[in-house]
Each structure stands twice: as structure tokens, then as C-alpha cells.
Amino acid sequence: MDPENRTSTEKPVLPVPSKGNPVATASSILTTLAHGSAPFLSTFLIIHLSAPIAANVGGSGLASSVMLLGREYYQTAFGERYLLFLPLAIHVTSSIAKRAVLTLAPDSSSLSPSSRPSMSDLDSTADSEKSFTPKSRARIRKLTSLLSISAYTALFLFVPIHVATHRLLPARADSPAWPSNNVDLDALGSSELDFEFVKTAIKTWPWRSWMLYTGLVGCVLVHAAEGASVIYTRYIRGRVGVPTLLSLRGNKKNAVVAGVAALPVLTGLWVLSREPTFALSSIVRQYRNTLMGSWVYRL
Q: Measured between alpha carbons, how far is residue 17 from residues 23, 29, 95, 99 in Å?
């Protein structure tokens, strides 16, 4: 049977775990969970980044309106819990668990004597030919790959800082984050937490704010581009035509995609940084105290 012809006619399907191989079964399940949760995170990412992109057209007013509209999807009691944090938890834990399983599993690239086919099996149909082919161990993606570097940098550095400064700290209603102030602060409401908050961060701490926003956007979009390439190759390629951009190879293609996606986000932030501050001085003071609740802004 011609392997080239067979490959060209096969349609991409979900991986079928090897019978009796717990490592392959676990890897297949974890891969499905990681890939299945990705569309939820991509949807959130598109909605969330639409706000700074809108600033290119309408400044902070339009950006804040788009952000408030987007919160109806990802910041409701149901949406935040089941459309954002649950898929994120599944994506992270399944990916890390898969790496742990494949790292700790023994190498099963060679067949055991009991699993080798007999001579009569070699004369049977194509099913026997497939069973005779040794099942190599699933490949572990290197930690130095763009997919891994962008994922772990975002997960352990940029995302925690962003969630803390833009979601958790503004919701706190306690004493001020900066001990030198003697004014009690109320929690920031959704209507108060708009892009004036972002402008305050950029204007007060320009270098660290640009590093944090650029690093977050860069890592997330590089990971999204790399992950989309993996999913496209595994499930879609061969079913639809290949666009011109996807004819580029490997890291070059993904870097182009991530750069194109990041450019309007960063230019939108630049437009915001050039605007004057429209919030009341008391709100701006509250913004600054909230941001200083994070160690990053206290350095």
C-alpha cells in the first residue's frame, strides 16, 4: 500500500489512543481538553483586544464603550466563571499534565516480544500492517519552543500581574494600597474602571506599563498564533484551501500573524497615551493607589 497515496486521501481526525497503552490514552485525552478549551479563550481574546483596537478610531471613549459591551460576555457571573476561568483552568492544567505524563512515562518506542506480530499476521490485510508498525512515543514539545516560552511567560508573569491590577485589586474595598496615604478607598465600579485607568497607568509609570502591556500582548498573541497553527495542522489542513499567509513556514509564519494582530492593539494604547486624562482628580488618585497595590508599581 502506497503510504504517500494513503496520506493524501486521509482526512484529519481526532487521535485514537493505542489500545492498552495508558500513556497514549492519557495524552490523547489531555490533548483534546487543551485543544477543546482553546476556542473559548480565543473568543475572549478577540473581544478583550477589540477595545484597545477601537481606540485607533474613537479614542478612549469608543474603547471604553467597547470594553463595557465586551464585559457582558466575560465578566458576568456565568461568563467569567464558565466561559473564561474554567476554560483557562482546563487549558493550563491539561497542558501541564500532558507534559508531566509524557516526561515521566517510560519510552515505549520499541515493541515488546509479546506484542510483535507473527509471520501469519504479516500476510494479512492493511490492518495488520498498521499494527506491525511500532507506535513511537508521543513527542514532547521543547520548553524552548515559541509555544512553550510564550505560554509559561504569560502564565507565570504577565497574566497574574494583569489580572491582579485590572480585576482583583480594583474590586477591593479596604484601606489604601499605599501606606503613606491616609484616605480610605472604595472599590472601583465597572463604570469607573474604563480606559482612564489604563491611561493613568501609562502616564504615571510609562516604562513599566509599556513593558507590561507589550509583553502581555506579545506573549499571548504569539502563543495564540502557535497554537492556532498546531490546531490547523491537526484538524483542518486538507479539508480547506491553504491561504497565502499560511504558506510561510514555522516560526516565521507565526511571527507574522502575531505581529499583525499585535500592531493595532499597541497603536491603540499609544493613541490613549497621547490623550489628556478626562477622569476626576479623585478618581485618578484612586487609580494610582489601586495600581500601587501591586508590587510591580511599588518598585
A: 9, 9, 17, 17
CB 40 within 8 Å of CB 87: yes
Regions in the chain scoring below 50 on pLDDT: 1-10, 16-17, 108-136, 173-184, 244-245
Q: Are the beta carbons of 88 and 35 closer than 8 angstroms?
A: no
CA 58 to chain centre: 27
16: which residues sit within 8 A by CB, 6+ positions away? 28
| Contact assessment for residue 164 and residue 290, using Cβ atoms and an 8 Å cutoff | no
CA distance 60 to 234: 40
Closest by Cα among 58, 44, 43, 67 to 198: 67
Residues 6+ apart with CB under 8 A from 83: 40, 43, 44, 73, 74
Task: For residues 70 and 273, give the distance between their C-alpha atoms in angstroms, rounded to a whole number.
Answer: 22
Per-residue burial over 16-54, b = 16 or more CB atoms within 10 Å of its CB, e = otherwise: ebeeeeebbebbbbbbebbbebbebbeebbebbbbbbbb
How far, CA to CA in Å, does 186 sit from each of 168, 174, 191, 263? 13, 7, 14, 35
Cell of 66: 467597547
Q: Tell me which H or E stretch contains 98.
A: helix 86-104
Q: What is the pLDDT of residues 25-38, one digit of tens each?
A: 999 999 999 999 99
Q: How many angstroms separate the CA atoms of 221 and 254, rounded?
A: 9
pLDDT digits (tens, 9 = 90+) for 223-268: 999 999 999 888 887 775 555 445 556 778 888 999 999 999 999 9
Cell for 287? 487609580
